[in-house]
Specification:
By secondary structure, the protein is mainly alpha-helical. It contains 10 helices and no strands. 70% of the residues lie in helices and 0% in strands. Helix 1 runs antiparallel to helix 2, helix 2 crosses helix 8 and helix 7 packs antiparallel against helix 9.
């Protein structure tokens, strides 16, 4: 979808430039900002490579498991349906750590791994569990203490004052995370979005897909007519 949006914006700019007689200015802006974009990307490479490598070292050094145990009490409150020793706990801990550090690109692989681990606790293929919804809510609204990517972008453009956004970012992301968690917990308890009710509706409609990779002890058994 984002590709169509960008193509649409470019097309609108070109058409507007033609009809207003400013097509030369549009062309100049296109080439000038293309060069600026390259400079910004190159500046980001070093930062992203460092933190991606740092996360890989943490994983190999076993720090992920220790991190998971450290934030275990909070994780157990947010994810009561996930066993404490399940691999998803470590995956989610690493994912949250990367998001808190503000390195979204490095966090993405860990987020995918966490969601895949949680899927082994999902009785269905086509319905997200409460834990998966909570993971998505937290990842979307994640508290960010060090917005590395934004700081790198601002540093590439301006040297002074590039860190002045840290405070507002912490405040804004903390509020968004609290709201996201609260909304998820609230919706999980409503009749429409309650997991058991959704499963019951899917069974009644005959559209439920059973997850064969489910590792729990109480899989869903649907009677075949």
């Amino acid at each position: 979808m984002i590709h169509f949006i960008w193509v649409g914006l470019v097309a609108i700019a070109v058409v507007a430039g033609i009809f207003t007689g400013n097509i030369v200015a549009v062309q100049d802006a296109l080439f000038n900002f293309a060069g600026i974009a390259v400079d910004i990307v190159i500046g980001l490479v070093g930062v992203m490579v460092f933190f991606t490598g740092f996360m890989a070292l943490m994983e190999k050094a076993g720090l992920c498991e220790k991190l998971g145990k450290f934030i275990g009490p909070v994780m157990r409150v947010l994810f009561p349906d996930v066993p404490a020793e399940h691999p998803a706990m470590s995956s989610m801990a690493l994912y949250f750590a990367a998001n808190i550090l503000g390195i979204g690109n490095a966090a993405t692989p860990f987020g995918l791994k966490a969601m895949a681990d949680l899927q082994t606790l999902n009785k269905t293929k086509n319905i997200a569990t409460d834990a998966q919804c909570m993971l998505l809510a937290i990842s979307t609204t994640s508290i960010t203490l060090i917005p590395v990517t934004v700081l790198a972008l601002r540093s590439a453009i301006q040297v002074e004052g590039s860190t002045e956004i840290v405070g507002p970012v912490i405040l804004a992301t903390t509020i968004s995370t609290v709201v996201g968690i609260g909304a998820t917990l609230l919706l999980n308890k409503t009749k429409k979005y309650n997991l058991e009710n959704i499963i019951a509706r899917e069974i009644a409609a005959g559209t439920l897909e059973i997850n064969e990779d489910y590792v729990g002890k109480d899989p869903i058994k649907v009677q075949k007519i």
